[in-house]
Amino acid sequence: MNPIKISVIVPIYRIEDYLPKCIESLLQQSFKDFELILVDDGSPDNCPKICDDYAKLDQRVKVIHKPNGGLLSARKAGLDAALGTHIAYVDGDDWVDHFYLDTLYKLAVANDADLAVTGHFREFDGKIETIKPNNPGFYNEERIKSEILPNAIYNGEFCEHGMSTYVWNKLFKKELLIKVLYDISNDVVMGEDAAITYSYLAISKQLVISKIPLYYYRQRHDSIVKSVEDPKTEYYRLGLLMNFLKTKLSPVLDKYNLDKQITYYLYSQILVRSGGLTYNQQKDSWFNPFLKTTKDSKVVVYSSGSFGQHILSTNLKTDYFKIIKWIDVDFHDLKIGENTVNPISSISNNEFDYLIIATINPSTHKSLKEELELMGIDSSKIVKIDTDITKIQNLIEDLGFDQNFIFTKKTN
Predict the structure, then answer these.
(1) What is a GO molecular function of this protein (predicted)?
(2) Of 69, 84, 310, 400, which cross-links 7 as Cys (Cβ 3.0–4.6 Å)?
(3) What domain count does the chain have?
């Protein structure tokens, strides 16, 4: 009888400062019947040695050294070697609660669930935020298809997921994961987790969602800043993801609902990666999604996360807005151009025309807007993102995506 119930797979690349804490948190689990598969994806730092050292200390640790092939290839390599009936994925720069595996496994077994989902903690610069799913409970196949999948990617509020994309707060059955993971092209390097989660959900018959937070997700500002590549390359990659989702979800969702979910998801990803402003070559003009704002508007940008950083980086190139200040409640040392992050208490109404909250999540937008209003900021100056579906569809078509969300304009 196979004693291994869970295979924990950790893809590893350039995270030597964080990896020991991750591994220690897993080896100290209250749940014992697991193996830990460390997948060194050709990491050029000290990670390979760290992996090997832990393997010498604990027989539960299995190490795979492979040439760099990206996150999906590492996840696949781990699955190839897995002996457990269930699979958990953990990112090597994060860490987990002492009862992470125990709770996930009991949730899965007690409900005979194909997928178990929990809450998580978000850690940033020493601050920890608890994030819990909005829809806890047990779902059979009928409810998955009628309640979960129609709102999984886009829940009716731009652009909030009904089911989180992350794979690390979930426990999968190996026999089902095998059916979807290998179908995902390794060229999908944007939204890899979404490709796994949503395609797996489409073949799940029983689902359990718990509010218990068990996973510590480390939000690293040094991991966010990435130079935006040639837009055509990025659109091609996004098209791979969106077309894959359409293919896998078409059997379980009606075309109208599926196309709407993917349209909003694609739009949100284009916005984040482009810093909001998107050059529309067909119309030889910039598409500005921030309602009320115009070129040369004096703007304050709230959020130093991925979207906020891309807004600052894009504006350096386009000089579209006059960015007066960059603020965040998660105040930390970060600079883009001449702008550094300031605390939210540093602004006053007479300094700016509009304030952009750099988030595509409506719940986050609402919460931050309320905090700003309590600080005396004029609510009429806090802008929203344009979510007119017709404008979005026209933009996506003009950029070069076809009806199946494939990017048809080839890269240079």
Answers:
(1) hexosyltransferase activity
(2) 84
(3) 3
